[in-house]
C-alpha cells in the first residue's frame, strides 16, 4: 500500500459544524432585495400558517393589517429552500430584512414596530436566484400592543442580522460581528424567545468555531441546545449535538465527542431526520479515525451509509463511500473498497463533481497498487492528476506523492520528479494557511498525511546524493511536525515560502507529463465503459464491436504510457547526470549550514539522520563537504532497539548495555572516520556533533551509546564527543556569542499540584542555582530570582520574563499529551492550595508576554520534558526545542525520560557552577563535564552509599540549539 495515502474527509471535518448548520452563510449578501418575479399571495392572519412552494427567481408578497403602535412578528419555516424574509411599511420602506445563516432548513424570524396604521407588506424571496423548487411555511406569530421587551427583541434582531452581514464580508469585520452578537445575546436573554435565542447562540458558536475558540463555541452550542429543547425540536437538537461533538473532538476530547454524536444520532432518529442522523455517524467515524481508531471508524461509516442512501443526497453519500473505501484499502479489504469506489465514481459523475471524480479514480489506483497491478495503478493515478488540475493543491499533492511512491523502488529520478511536484503543492497550501486564520486549523490534517511524503522524498534525494535538497526537505518536515504536535503553531516563514530547486529538464518534463495524464484520463473513461459493457448479461452486435474497439484503444494507450515512462521520461530524468550535477553545484554554493559550520570553528560536524521503512541514512556535513552514509537498519529495527534501551533506563536497575551497544555500531560505525577527523581538528580533541534527529532516534540517549571494545574512559559517546540536538530554528542561534555575565531566574514546584507527584528535590536544586537576596537559603553561582510553589504563577512568570534573564531554569512537570490534548507546563494557580495551572504548549508559543527573547538557555529539568506522550515518531522531542527557540531562546536543556529528583538537582547545580565560573567554557562542555563527573563517581550526594554512574541518572539530559 502506498506510503502517502491521504484521508479525504478530515480535511472537511473542521468546518463540519458550520457547514452542517449554516451552509449558506457565505452567500448571505449576494441576492437583491426584490426578486424579478413577484406573486401577490394574500393576507396573513394570526397563528394561521400558509404552506408555499417556489423556486429561485420568484417571490411571494403578503399583507398584514397592523394598527399604529402594535408589535408585528413573522416566522417563516424553511423546508428545502433558503429564503429571505423582509417587512416593509405602508410606504414601502424596509423595516427588517432577515436572512439567518441556516441554509435551506430552519426558521427565518423578523419583527417590526408599526409606527402608523396600515397594510404592511411581507416579502419572501429565494436567496439563490437559481435555486430549485422548495417548500416553506409562513405565519403571523404575534400581532399585539407593544411591550417593553418587544423593543429589545427588534433591537436584538437588527444587531443579529447586521453581525451576519459583517461576518461574511471580510476578516477585519469579524471581531465587530462577534461583539454585535454578544450584545444581541444579552438582549435576547431578556426577551426569553427560545427560537430566536437558539438561532443566535448557534450562529455565535459557529463563529467561535471558525476562530478556533473551541471551548467558547461548545458553551454557546450548549446554551443553544437548552433553548432548542424547550421548543421540543429534535431535529435542531440533533444538529446542535453534532456541532458539540465536532467542537469537543477539535479540543482533543474524543470520549466527549463520541457521547455528543451518539446523542445526536438518537435525537435525529427519533425525529426521522435521516440526513442529520447520517451526518452524525459520519463525523463520529471521522473523529475515530483522527484518533487512530480505524476499527470503530469503519463501523461508524458502515452505519452512516444506508441511512445516507435514504436521503438521496449524492454528494454526502459519495463522501461516505470514499471514507469507507480508504479504511478498507488500509485494512486490505480490497474487494469492498473497489465496490464502494465504483459506486462513488458513478455518483460523482452524475452530479458533475470533478474533484470527487478525481479523488475516486486516484483511490481506485491505490486499490490496483495494493493488488499488484502497477500498470492499472499508474493509469488511474495519472488520470486523477489530469482531472484534478489546479482545483485542489492538497489533492494534487497527494496524487503526485502516490506517483512518487509508484516509482520509488525502480526509477528514483522519476519518483523525485513527482516528489518535488508534491512538495510544491504542499508548500502552496502552507503559504495559504499561514495567511488565513480560518485555514490554519486544517494544517493538522494536511501535515498528518503529508509528512510521510516529505520523508520519502528526502530518502530518495539522499539515495541520489542530492544531499543539500534532502537536508532542506528534512527541515521542512520538522517545521510541519511542529504544527502537528502543538495546536495552533504557526509555520516558520522560511518553510512556507521555500521552493526546492529543480532543473531545466524537470520544468520541460511537466508538459510531457500533462500529455501522458490526458492519455490516461481517456483510457480511464474507455476502461469504465468497457467494464460496463462486460457486465451486461447480453450484448448487441454494436456493443460487441464497441468492446473490441475499446479493448484495442486501452491496449494501445497502456503501451504508450509504458513507453513514455520507461523510455522517454527515463531518458530525460534518469540519465541526465549533467542536470543533477548542476543542481548539486548550486546547492553547495548556497548551503547556509556549511556557512554556519565554517564559522563555528574546527571540530564541528552536522549529522542529519533520516529513518525510513526500508533504508536509513546519515548525512555528514562539514564546512566544505557533504557525505551520505547508510545505516544498516530501518525504522522498525531502530525503533525496537531504542525502545528496549529506554525500558531498561526507567530505573538504575536495568541493563541497557546490549541495546545501546547495537545502536552505537549501527549509527556511529558508518561515520567513525568523520568523527575521528573532527576530533583531530578540535583544539581539545573532542568533536562537537550537531544532530538533526529523525523518527525514533529522537528518543535515543546519544551520550549513552556504548562501544565496549574501547577503553573504559571512552566507551560512552559522552566521553568521546559533545552531542547537541539542532532543529530548523537552531540555525538562527548557532552563531550567537555567549553572554558576558549570567543572570538567572530559577522557578519550580516542589509540592504536588493537580495530583501530580511532588518533586522534593526542587528546593535544593533552585537554591543551588541562583543567589536571590530575598531567599537567604539560595547560594548558587548566578545572581537572580527564585520563585517556588505558590509564587510560581503565570503572572509571576510573565513578570520575570519581562526582565530578560539570560538563564531561565524551570523545575516542574512538562507533560506531553499529543493527540490526547494540549501538552502543558505545570504552574501554580496562586489562588488555592495544590491547585495547578496548565500552561499549554500553544500558549507558550503564542502569548506575547511569554517571550524568552535574549535568553541564552531555558532549562526544563523535571519529569517528561521531552518524553513521548501518545505520539510515536519523536515529534514532541523537536517541538519543545523549536517552540522555545522560536520565542527567542538560544538553547533549551530538556530531558528524555522521567528523571531522578535528587540526582537531577545535583547534576544541574554542578552544570551551572562549571558554566558560570569557568572562563570561556561552552555550555555543552559544562554539561558534558557534569555528566562525566556523575559517570565517574565524582558527583555524589552527601553521605550516599550508592553511586550515580548508571546512565539512568546522567544520560537523559539533551541540549538543543546554541551550544556555546
Strands, helices and their partners?
Layout: H1 10-13, H2 16-21, E1 37-43, E2 50-54, E3 58-66, E4 70-79, E5 83-88, E6 94-98, E7 105-113, E8 118-126, E9 134-145, H3 148-169, H4 174-191, H5 194-210, H6 214-231, H7 234-250, H8 254-270, H9 274-290, H10 294-311, H11 314-330, H12 334-350, H13 354-370, H14 374-388, H15 393-408, H16 412-435, H17 437-440, H18 443-463, H19 467-485, H20 493-497, H21 504-534, H22 541-574, H23 577-590, H24 592-600, E10 604-611, E11 616-621, E12 626-631, H25 635-648, H26 657-668, H27 672-681, E13 688-692, H28 717-720, E14 722-725, E15 743-748, H29 762-767, E16 770-771, E17 782-788, H30 794-802, E18 807-811, E19 814-815, E20 824-828, E21 836-840, H31 841-846, E22 857-860, H32 875-886, E23 891-895, H33 901-917, H34 923-935, H35 951-954, E24 957-961
Parallel strand pairs: 1-3, 10-13, 13-14, 15-17, 15-18, 16-17, 18-22, 22-23
Antiparallel strand pairs: 2-9, 3-8, 4-7, 4-9, 5-6, 5-8, 10-11, 11-12, 19-20, 20-21, 23-24
Helix pairs in contact: 3-4, 4-5, 5-6, 6-7, 7-8, 7-9, 8-9, 9-10, 10-11, 11-12, 11-13, 12-13, 13-14, 13-15, 14-15, 14-21, 15-16, 15-18, 16-18, 16-22, 18-19, 19-32, 21-22, 25-26, 33-34
Amino acid at each position: 500500500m502506498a506510503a502517502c495515502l491521504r484521508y479525504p474527509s478530515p480535511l472537511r471535518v473542521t468546518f463540519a459544524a458550520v457547514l452542517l448548520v449554516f451552509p449558506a452563510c457565505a452567500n448571505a449578501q449576494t441576492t437583491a432585495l426584490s426578486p424579478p418575479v413577484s406573486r401577490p399571495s394574500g393576507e396573513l392572519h394570526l397563528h394561521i400558517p400558509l404552506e408555499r412552494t417556489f423556486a429561485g427567481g420568484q417571490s411571494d408578497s403578503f399583507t398584514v393589517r397592523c394598527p399604529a403602535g402594535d408589535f408585528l412578528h413573522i416566522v417563516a419555516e424553511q423546508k428545502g429552500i433558503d429564503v429571505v424574509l423582509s417587512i416593509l411599511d405602508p410606504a414601502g420602506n424596509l423595516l427588517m430584512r432577515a436572512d439567518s445563516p441556516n441554509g435551506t432548513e430552519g426558521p427565518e424570524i423578523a419583527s417590526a414596530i408599526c409606527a402608523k396604521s396600515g397594510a404592511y407588506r411581507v416579502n419572501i424571496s429565494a436567496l439563490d436566484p437559481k435555486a430549485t423548487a422548495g417548500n416553506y411555511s409562513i405565519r403571523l406569530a404575534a400581532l399585539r400592543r407593544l411591550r417593553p421587551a418587544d423593543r429589545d427583541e427588534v433591537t436584538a434582531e437588527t444587531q443579529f442580522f447586521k453581525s451576519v452581514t459583517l461576518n461574511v464580508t471580510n476578516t477585519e469585520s469579524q471581531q465587530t460581528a462577534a461583539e454585535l452578537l454578544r450584545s444581541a445575546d444579552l438582549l435576547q436573554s431578556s426577551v426569553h424567545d427560545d427560537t430566536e435565542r437558539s438561532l443566535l447562540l448557534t450562529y455565535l458558536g459557529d463563529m467561535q468555531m471558525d476562530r478556533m475558540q473551541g471551548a467558547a463555541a461548545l458553551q454557546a452550542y450548549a446554551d443553544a441546545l437548552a433553548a432548542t429543547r424547550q421548543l421540543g425540536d429534535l431535529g435542531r437538537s440533533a444538529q446542535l449535538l453534532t456541532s458539540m461533538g465536532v467542537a469537543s473532538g477539535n479540543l482533543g476530547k474524543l470520549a466527549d465527542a463520541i457521547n455528543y454524536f451518539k446523542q445526536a444520532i438518537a435525537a435525529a432518529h427519533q425525529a426521522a431526520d435521516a440526513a442529520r442522523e447520517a451526518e452524525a455517524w459520519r463525523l463520529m467515524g471521522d473523529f475515530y479515525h483522527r484518533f487512530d481508531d480505524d476499527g470503530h471508524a469503519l463501523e461508524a461509516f458502515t452505519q452512516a451509509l444506508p441511512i445516507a442512501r435514504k436521503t438521496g443526497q449524492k454528494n454526502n453519500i459519495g463522501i461516505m463511500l470514499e471514507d469507507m473505501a480508504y479504511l478498507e484499502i488500509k485494512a486490505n479489504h480490497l474487494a469492498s473498497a473497489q465496490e464502494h469506489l465504483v459506486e462513488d465514481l458513478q455518483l460523482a459523475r452524475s452530479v458533475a463533481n470533478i474533484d470527487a471524480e478525481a479523488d475516486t479514480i486516484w483511490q481506485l489506483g491505490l486499490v490496483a497498487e495494493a493488488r499488484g497491478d502497477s500498470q492499472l495503478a499508474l493509469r488511474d493515478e495519472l488520470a486523477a492528476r489530469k482531472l484534478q488540475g489546479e482545483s485542489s493543491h492538497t489533492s494534487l499533492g497527494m496524487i503526485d506523492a502516490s506517483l512518487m511512491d509508484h516509482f520509488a523502488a525502480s526509477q528514483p529520478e522519476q519518483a523525485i520528479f513527482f516528489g518535488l511536484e508534491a512538495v510544491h503543492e504542499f508548500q502552496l497550501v502552507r503559504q495559504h494557511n499561514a495567511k488565513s486564520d480560518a485555514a490554519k486549523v486544517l494544517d493538522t490534517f494536511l501535515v498528518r498525511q503529508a509528512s510521510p511524503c516529505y520523508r520519502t522524498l528526502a530518502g530518495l534525494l539522499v539515495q541520489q546524493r542530492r544531499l543539500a535538497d534532502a537536508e532542506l526537505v528534512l527541515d521542512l518536515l520538522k517545521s510541519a511536525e511542529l504544527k502537528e504536535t502543538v495546536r495552533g503553531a504557526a509555520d516558520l516563514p522560511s518553510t512556507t515560502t521555500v521552493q526546492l530547486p529543480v532543473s531545466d529538464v524537470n520544468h520541460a518534463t511537466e508538459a510531457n507529463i500533462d500529455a501522458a495524464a490526458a492519455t490516461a484520463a481517456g483510457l480511464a473513461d474507455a476502461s469504465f465503459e468497457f467494464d460496463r459493457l462486460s457486465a451486461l448479461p447480453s450484448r448487441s452486435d454494436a456493443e460487441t464491436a464497441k468492446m473490441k474497439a475499446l479493448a484495442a484503444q486501452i491496449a494501445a494507450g497502456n503501451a504508450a504510457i509504458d513507453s513514455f515512462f520507461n523510455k522517454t521520461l527515463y531518458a530525460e530524468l534518469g540519465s541526465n547526470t549533467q542536470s543533477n550535477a548542476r543542481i548539486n553545484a548550486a546547492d553547495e554554493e548556497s548551503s547556509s549550514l556549511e556557512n554556519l559550520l565554517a564559522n563555528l570553528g574546527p571540530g564541528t560536524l552536522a549529522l542529519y539522520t533520516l529513518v525510513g521503512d526500508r533504508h536509513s541514512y546519515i548525512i555528514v556535513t562539514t564546512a566544505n563537504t557533504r557525505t551520505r552514509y547508510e545505516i544498516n537498519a530501518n525504522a522498525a529495527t531502530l525503533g525496537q532497539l531504542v525502545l528496549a534501551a529506554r525500558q531498561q533506563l526507567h530505573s538504575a536497575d536495568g541493563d541497557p548495555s546490549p541495546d545501546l551497544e547495537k545502536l552505537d555500531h549501527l549509527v556511529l560505525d558508518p561515520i567513525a572516520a568523520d568523527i575521528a577527523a573532527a576530533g583531530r581538528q578540535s583544539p581539545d580533541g573532542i568533536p562537537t556533533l550537531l544532530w538533526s534527529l529523525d523518527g525514533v532516534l529522537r528518543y535515543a540517549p546519544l551520550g549513552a551509546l556504548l562501544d565496549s571494545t574501547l577503553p573504559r574512559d571512552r566507551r560512552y559517546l559522552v566521553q568521546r564527543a559533545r552531542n547537541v540536538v539542532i532543529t530548523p530554528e537552531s540555525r538562527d542561534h548557532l552563531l550567537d556569542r555567549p553572554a558576558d555575565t549570567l543572570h538567572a531566574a530559577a522557578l519550580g514546584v516542589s509540592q504536588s499540584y493537580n495530583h501530580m507527584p511532588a518533586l522534593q528535590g526542587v528546593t535544593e536544586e533552585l537554591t543551588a542555582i541562583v543567589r536571590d537576596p530575598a531567599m537567604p537559603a539560595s547560594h548558587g553561582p548566578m545572581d537572580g530570582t527564585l520563585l517556588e510553589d505558590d509564587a510560581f504563577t503565570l503572572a509571576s512568570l510573565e513578570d520575570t520574563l519581562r526582565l530578560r534573564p539570560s538563564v531561565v531554569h524551570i523545575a516542574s512537570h512538562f507533560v506531553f499529551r499529543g493527540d490526547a490534548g494540549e501538552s502543558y507546563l505545570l504552574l501554580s494557580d496562586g489562588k488555592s492550595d495544590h491547585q495547578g495551572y496548565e500552561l499549554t504548549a500553544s500558549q507558550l508559543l503564542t502569548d506575547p508576554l511569554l517571550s524568552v527573547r535574549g535568553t541564552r538557555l531555558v532549562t526544563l529539568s523535571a519529569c517528561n520534558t521531552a518524553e513521548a506522550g501518545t505520539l510515536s515518531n519523536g515529534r514532541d522531542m523537536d517541538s519543545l526545542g523549536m517552540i522555545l527557540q522560536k520565542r527567542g531562546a538560544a538553547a533549551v536543556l530538556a530531558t528524555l525520560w522521567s528523571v531522578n529528583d535528587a540526582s537531577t538537582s545535583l547534576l544541574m547545580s554542578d552544570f551551572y557552577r562549571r558554566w558560570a565560573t569557568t572562563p570561556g567554557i561552552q555550555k555543552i562542555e559544562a554539561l558534558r563535564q557534569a555528566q562525566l563527573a556523575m559517570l565517574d563517581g565524582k558527583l555524589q550526594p552527601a553521605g550516599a552509599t550508592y553511586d550515580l554512574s548508571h546512565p539512568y541518572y546522567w544520560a537523559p539530559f539533551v541540549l538543543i540549539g546554541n551550544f556555546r
